[in-house]
Structures are given as structure tokens and as C-alpha cells.
């Protein structure tokens, strides 16, 4: 596996000298931040991009420079998707399926972080719904469009270290809501989704992996936090890492934060990264230390048996919501 890239590499560094003409890629969350930079870098190298956003007007404005600069006729199309709504997910999936054109790569990038307690119209805790369950529903509906030999990249987070998934109470019905625990659970679920998707589809050459993009301020993820809360968080992270003898935490710019997603999508050996958790453009080491801000991946986020149980429970949750009638178009 190529080891020349690292924490400071940018998406353009990773794609240097690589042409992606003829490749078609779906990425969620294209209005800002990492998703927008991921799409920009891939389109700049010739890939045709289909991007989703819950706010098409904002996405049109954000992607206008990308469309204007596209090389060699590469396209960037947008489609509306609200991952907090199963109704919206069904409509989006049906449109993509009706179009019938396959994707070489799907990047599950969209997300929210540390939101106030809220349930979606389908009854799911918001962060779990947007970061994990909505992607689970969408990608499994459009899975026939993912070409043989293709790739799935799910964007996880260092915050998976905050909490394992809770299969018995995913919606905080029997416990006090904690926004950071909820965020951590959703990102652990995102990693487990990649593990089980990889197992189920590797027989046709499809590989899936999850990605820790790195901490960046150039994203809409912190919109639910005050500036003071962001600074307090950075201070907590720095102290925890210093106390553990780890290098200081550094915020990355968005071009660096998009690098590992792009690397996983089109550069890395897909058979070496399949079913793995990635950071800094490499496979992350296992680290089960109690420090929530350490590098590496906790083993529970790659637990194959738990990934299968989560998959089955997710199908049950979605089936229950569908039968309630709330999610039907």
C-alpha cells in the first residue's frame, strides 16, 4: 500500500497525476465542508459527481465554482436528500434507480454533530438517523447501482471512541440524552456499517471502509456549538492528548480533511482497506486505551459480530417505521 501520504496531505496531493475520466461517484452532503472539497477534488480530475444535499439552493451556490471549472466535460449533478427523513430517502433512491446509471464509488459523507435532543419524524434520534441509519437505508436501496469492483466509503470520526452502539436503546428512550454520546454512537455505527457491507459484497469485488477525516473547523458540523464550546472542546482534546503523552491535536484545513476519503475512494488498494477504519491516508491501528481522544480505532468499531447484529436491528427499525406509514412517499 502506498505510504507516501499522511496527516498533512491534501485531496489534491492524493490525486496528483491521476485521471478519473469516466468514473461516476455519488457523495452525500455537498453543500459545504469536507463533502464539497471531496467533490471538487474528484471533479477536478475528471470524475462525474452526483451530490446530495438537503438544501439544493445552498448546494447550487456552493458548487457553482466546481461546475465552472470542471475539466474535459466532467459533470456535477445535484439531487435533494434529507437523511433525517425516510420519505426523502425513498424519493432520492427511486430517482437514482430510475436513472439506472451505475456508480463506481459511493461516499457517505453527510453528517451532523452534537445536536440538541431531537427525534426525526420517523422517530429516530437525529444524529443516529442522519449519520448512520439514513445512509444505511439509502445505500442498501441503491446497492444494485454500485458497480462490481466498486467502493463504499463511510465517514466516521475519532468520536467513535466516545461510545459503542446501543442496540437496545438507540433513541435514548430509557436514558438521559448526551449529545456527545449520541454522536459517538452514530459514528461507531457508521464504521460497523462499512464492516458488514464489505462482508456482504466483497464476493463481487465491492469493498467498503470507514474514514476518520481529521478535525477541521472548515465545516458546518460545529453549527450547533457556540464558539466558546468549540474552544473548550479543543482545550479538552489537547489536555487529554498531552496527559497521555500524545502529540498535540491540530486542526486541519478542509483540503487535508478530505484527503483520506479521496484516498480510500480511488487511490488505495481496495482489497487492503476493505472492512478497515482509515485515518491519515492509511489503515488505522487498533487502540483500546480509555483515552477518547487517542488516535486509532477501538476494536468495538470493527467487531464483525456486532456489525451483523446492527445490520439486522437496522432492518427491523426501518421496517417498523415503514409499516407505521410515516416514511412512505
Task: Characterise the protein shown here.
There is one protein chain. The longest helix has 23 residues, at 179-201. An eight-stranded mixed β-sheet has the order 3-2-1-4-5-6-7-8, sandwiched between helices. 50% of the residues are buried. It has one domain (11-223, 253-324): NAD(P)-binding Rossmann-like Domain (Rossmann fold). It is 42% helix and 13% strand. With 329 residues, it is of the alpha/beta class. Helix 4 (86-99) packs parallel to helix 5 (126-142), helix 5 (126-142) packs parallel to helix 6 and helix 6 crosses helix 11 (304-324). The chain has helices at 11-14, 33-44, 56-68, 86-99, 126-142, 179-201, 227-243, 254-257, 259-267, 270-273, 304-324; strands at 24-28, 48-53, 76-80, 103-108, 146-155, 207-212, 277-279, 282-283.
Keywords:
single chain; alpha/beta; eight-stranded mixed sheet; 11 helices; globular
Radius of gyration: 18 Å
Number of domains: 1
How much strand content do the residues show?
A: 5-15%
| Gap between N and C termini | 45 Å
The poorly predicted ranges are none
- Kindly report the spatial arrangement of strands forming the biggest sheet: 3-2-1-4-5-6-7-8
Profile the largest sheet.
Answer: 8 strands, mixed
What is the CATH fold-level name?
A: Rossmann fold
Q: How many helices in DSSP terms?
A: 11
CATH class: Alpha Beta
The overall average pLDDT, rounded, is 91
Strand tally: 8
Portion in helices: 40-55%
User: How does CATH name the architecture?
Assistant: 3-Layer(aba) Sandwich
SSE succession: HEHEHEHEHEHEHHHHEEH
Supply the helix-strand structural class.
Answer: alpha/beta
Kindly report the name of the CATH homologous superfamily.
NAD(P)-binding Rossmann-like Domain
